[in-house]
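Structure first, sequence second, as always.
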């Protein structure tokens, strides 16, 4: 059996997924900005843990985040700087962000089931996601290492979407061309950048529309 024998659409060799807002979804999203949509939205949830950030402190935390999300500083440095600014211990900081994301997000199990179906059809699977060091271990379950063939995470790779290098890097890791790849994301600006490079794109709004998109592509 060749690697392509089970592929439904031979013009497509790989699927690449975003994490926040796609593989992981917010709990109780009431139409406002959820913590997976931006770091500033995530910081707004810190008040539920009794942490009220002044404008000055928020600016400093965001500056640390911007360095962490593109790997300009290590996880250890991210933790040290943020814990100093928030005046809590490094251990407390890590627990805080773990609770922040675990309390406010759910893994999109239905989508993951479709990811497994794509894998059974011999499509290559990748993840392309903008993450800072304190998100990464929470939103990347260990099982992803067995299912996805390659990952491009901004805090490791040092560039983030919509930087064209991020799209080229994940395609290279998957050993496919950009034109053979479908990119799935919940943000139009990222999809627009991917499309300019020749990738096929699917805007993720909900699972039903995603499945319909797969049908239109002739994948299912």
């Amino acid at each position: 059996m060749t690697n392509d024998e089970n592929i439904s659409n031979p013009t497509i060799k790989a699927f690449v997924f975003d994490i926040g807002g796609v593989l992981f979804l917010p709990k109780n999203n009431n139409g406002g900005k959820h913590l997976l949509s931006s770091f500033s939205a995530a910081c707004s949830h810190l008040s539920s843990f009794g942490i009220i950030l002044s404008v000055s402190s928020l600016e400093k935390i965001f500056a640390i985040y911007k360095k962490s999300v593109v790997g300009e500083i290590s996880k250890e440095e991210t933790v040290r700087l943020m814990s100093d600014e928030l005046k809590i211990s490094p251990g407390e900081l890590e627990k805080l962000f773990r609770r922040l994301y675990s309390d406010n997000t759910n893994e999109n199990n239905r989508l993951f089931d479709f990811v497994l179906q794509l894998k059974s059809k011999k499509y290559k699977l990748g993840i392309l996601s903008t993450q800072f060091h304190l998100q990464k271990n929470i939103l990347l379950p260990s099982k992803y290492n067995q299912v996805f063939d390659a990952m491009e995470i901004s805090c490791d790779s040092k560039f983030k979407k919509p930087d064209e290098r991020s799209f080229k890097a994940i395609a290279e890791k998957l050993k496919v061309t950009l034109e053979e790849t479908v990119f799935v994301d919940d943000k139009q600006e990222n999809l627009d950048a991917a499309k300019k490079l020749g990738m096929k794109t699917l805007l993720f709004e909900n699972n039903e529309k995603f499945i319909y998109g797969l049908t239109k592509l002739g994948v299912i």
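Margin note: The mean pLDDT is 92.
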